[in-house]
From TrEMBL:
CDD domains: Ubl_ThiS (cd00565). It comes from the Bacteria. InterPro entries: Beta-grasp_dom_sf, Mopterin_synth/thiamin_S_b, Thi_S, ThiS/MoaD-like. It comes from Vibrio olivae. This is Sulfur carrier protein ThiS.
Length: 72
């Protein structure tokens, strides 16, 4: 029996997960701290930070992590 890995793509890099969790779980697993003002898109849709702990990732999701930068 072949087991297909649970995988997502974080900024183009493959991340294999033991089980799918929330976006917050993924950030913790990757040791990404979010105090620096990140913006996250999942499958090209911006996810508000108050929904990160509710969004359950699915196999093949593409996650883009951007650090918000103020400009003038």
């Amino acid at each position: 029996m072949t087991v297909t890995p649970n995988r997502v793509f974080l900024n183009g890099e493959t991340v294999v997960l033991q089980r799918f969790g929330t976006l917050t779980d993924l950030l913790a697993k990757q040791a990404i701290t979010t105090e620096s003002g990140y913006v996250i898109a999942v499958n090209n849709t911006i996810v508000p930070n108050n929904q990160w702990s509710e969004l359950v990732l699915q196999d093949g999701d593409h996650i883009s992590l951007f650090q918000a930068i103020a400009g003038g």
